[in-house]
Amino acid sequence: MNENGLNYIDLFAGAGGLSEGFIQSGYRPVAHVEMNGYAAKTLETRIAYYYLKDNGELNSYYDYEKGKITRTQLLEKIPEEELKTVINKEMSESTIKGIFNTIDEIKKEKGIEKIDVIIGGPPCQAYSLVGRAQSSHMVVPMEDDPRNELYKMYVQFLNKYKPRMFVFENVAGIKSARGGQAFKNLQMYMKRVGYEICYDELNAHDFGVLQSRKRVIIVGWLKGTGYDYPSFEVIHSNAEVWDLLKDLPALNPGDEAREHTIPVLNKYKIIYTYSDFGLYAGCWILLIFYTYSIYMSMGKFFLTAPIIAYLLYLLIKKIKEWLEKQGIEFVE
Fold this sequence. Notes:
The protein is of the alpha/beta class and about 325 residues long. The chain contains twelve helices and nine strands. Helix 1 (about 15-25) links the parallel strand 1 and strand 2 (about 30-35).
């Protein structure tokens, strides 16, 4: 981990998507707060990865991935103070004081005087356009969903720890939820506890991701610090999703595979699992056999050889075109 001397708290951390970016940029996590048990386990696993990487022991992590050691055996290699940063609790008025106490203990144990950044964003279902479209079919309509108010928990952390900056992420629908009033209230609360804020709607596609996914990103900084919203260079990738998936082995329900497998035949990397290609090639073979049978039954032996040869030529040509269309590389 290339440390830059800065730290952060991740709220509503999920599986740690935001944390990954901050860790890779050199920030040290003070705490991840997440209510979902499975997501919290993922956070612990990522902590294990980075700890082992920093200490030159990544082989232990790879042994875990390969099933050679259990998750319990993996976590036994990680100091308790590292794993303690994952706080698997729901944020509410009844729990927030206890979460504060846990974070304060972590700060004291690690000699941390100041929190530099707070990141995160509350669950987005209450703000999403899809969620609101389904509201009429729900027992608790989205307008009355208590998750609408979770941003207030986030603001309480800002007020408690006074980080120099914060990053708040949510779906684009947050701007129009409750007729736009929810977003206005959010900004009002953030400004009330001492922050200047700026926001923009960003698309993951503009950062080289093979997906169009829009998010509202609010960046805030303590009043008087003179910070500003960052500018970003647009990065468009020429890759396709297929480039990520084409070397994965075919799996049936219940199967597992831990290797990327592409068998090599002659000059081509072939993937044998395409039913469309198998059907296509089978039809060509049947056509050749049928043609051969007809001409042999007519006694036209002199026509059989060139016609079969020509059909084989067309088949090979079509196979080559299919391979190139799939982006399959040539092996020298």
